[in-house]
Amino acid sequence: xxxxxxxxxxxxxxxxxxxxxxxxxxxxxxYLSGMTARDRQMKAVEGLDxxxxxxxxxxxxxxLVEAAGGRASxxxxxxxxxTDISRRELVWKARQEFFSGNxxxxxxxxxxxxxxxxxxxxxxxIAHIGAGAG
Length: 134
Prior knowledge:
It comes from Phreatobacter stygius. By secondary structure, the protein is of the alpha+beta class. The two termini are 28 Å apart. It has a single domain, classed as CATH 3.30.1330.40. It has helices spanning 50-67, 88-98, and strands at 4-6, 23-26, 29-35, 75-82, 105-110, 121-128. 22% of the residues lie in helices and 27% in strands.
């Protein structure tokens, strides 16, 4: 039986104890919680569009996968939540800056709201550590 380990990056703020884990690894698979554009104090970054928020989020996901021993190309599945699907191209533009070759399988879902009004994008993922292109 595989044990559960928590991967922590010095570049991604961890939530307070008892809320959630940003990245859990089981049997070489990393499960990445929904990330948003928050600063080191876990406050939402104000005034950013979907592209800018997505870049921050993809960087966090990359940092967490690296903390788990992998790289961005190990990410095989993304679920992207947006508050305005008409602005999805801005999210896709940011995604293209982080991935190439086999892009992760992906779902894009519009939601009525996220954790705070200024948060327009939330992204979660799954990575198979060591499976991506080098």
